[in-house]
Structures are given as C-alpha cells and as structure tokens.
Amino acid sequence: MTPLTEVDGRRLALSNLHKVLHPVTGTTKGEVLHYYATVGAAILPHLRDRPVSFLRYPDGPDGQLFFTKNPPPGTPSWVTTTPVPRSEDPGARQVVIQDLASLMWASNLVVEFHTPQWRTSSPAVADRLVLDLDPGPPATVVECCRVALHLRERLAADGLEAFAKTSGSKGLHLLVPVEPTPSAQVSAYARQLAVEAEAALPKLVVHRMAKALRPGKVFVDHSQNAAAKTTATPYTLRARARPAVSAPVTWEEVEDGAHRAATPEALVLLMDDITPRLERYGDLLAPLFEPGRAGRLP
Whole-structure pTM over 0.85, yes or no? Predict the structure, then answer.
C-alpha cells in the first residue's frame, strides 16, 4: 500500500519510499522527502509566488530525465497554479509552490525545482539578477570562485550586492536583488557584465556558449535573466549520482575556494550538509527579501 501522510491538513500519498535515487550514497526517496520537509522553511520563500518548472528524475539520474512546465497530470486542486502565457500556448498555466503541503506533493514526484527571476504578480519584471558561472574542464569551481570575486566587485561598483550559491553541479550562481526591472533590461545588463568580465579576464572568462571557446574557462551565462528562462531554486536537490544541493555559501567560502590549493570538493554541498548550515548561518540568501537591499540597475 502507498503510505498516506497529512501535511498542514492535506492528505498526501507518498510512494516508493525505499527506491534509491542517488546511487553513490544509496539515498532513498524517503530520505529525499525528509530533506524537503526539514528545509521547507528555507526553500519556500524562494519558491513562493514564482511559477515553477520541474526537472523530473523519478528513477534517479541514470533514468529518464524530463523537463516540464505544465502542471503534471493528477495535480491536486489545492495546489496553486498561475497563468503563464507562452507564445506556443497562450493559455498555459504553471504550478506555484506556496506551502509545505505543495512542496511535499511536488517532492514526491522527484524533481529539481527551477524558478524564474520574476514573480507571478509581475511577469517578466525581475526582482533579481542571476549569473551562472559554468566551468569548462579542466576548469572547476575553483576558477568559478575567482570569477565570482571579480563580479562581486564589479557589481558593487554599480551599487549592487551579490550573494553566492553552488549550482549543485559544477559551478556557482550569483544572485543580486534588484528593484523591479523589465527582464529584457536585466538581461542586457547581465550580458554587459559578462562581456566586461571576459575583457578583464580573457584567460579565465568567456561570455559565449560555444563549446569550442570554453575549455579551461568559466562561461558567465547571463541568459537565465530572460523572462522565459529559469534557474535552479536555492536548496533544490539536483539529479546527480550524489544528493548535491544548490546551496548558498558565504563569501569567505568563495574566497577560500579561489585559492590555488583549493579543491573542487570543498564547495560540494550534499543533502546532509544543509541542516547544520542552516543552524549555523540561517538562510544566507534571506537578504534577497529584505526591504532596502535591492539595487537599481545603472
């Protein structure tokens, strides 16, 4: 029988709790669900009021992976959805994760959570800027840390404050709270930052996606600021052999990671690392929501 549980007054059927989803560590679906229940207070502010896209991996990272924006079949009536007009489907809707019950329902589907830089109340008007630092082998997160420190200073020169998190894969994400600004304008500014970074650090940075340009360099991906694009939500697990999390890090950790003697493993944060970090630091990305922290683009 599929076990039933109650979350905030909602009854949920949780399935296949013993299935191994992350093979290297033997992490089961039940442990994944426990993770999301434990970090719900941290992840929910980053999900609320943003249409969510799911990367589903129901049989683990070695099984079928598929990306979906539409509400999955069987979505309960109490899960919030919102209209998100798309050129190919003007009547499209997407799920919005507003509460713990919805979070646990979605987690039972086995998903990565991906969200845009805007809220449902203001489609295509961003309240944050994102830069995805993606290393091309043999470059690693160590090189990403060096680029992140450069971009932090560059953003500060424009009066903007950056916060860092691991991508949960190979690199880093920089998040910047901004006053509500059309996504197209944020995209243009982010591209300018990437072009400038390549000019300043030509042996380390590339601003174009072409694979031939990327070996040994850090691709500063500015494209995720487009209204139609999304980024891995803070605290989401990623579909990897180990239960890696896209988790916030301190600037001290980034500085340590930039040293030549640093190892890429130092900035790999797994599921079991997150609760102790929350107990120590709280949510390092909480300032994204603080009044007065958002900057104005030049």
Answer: yes
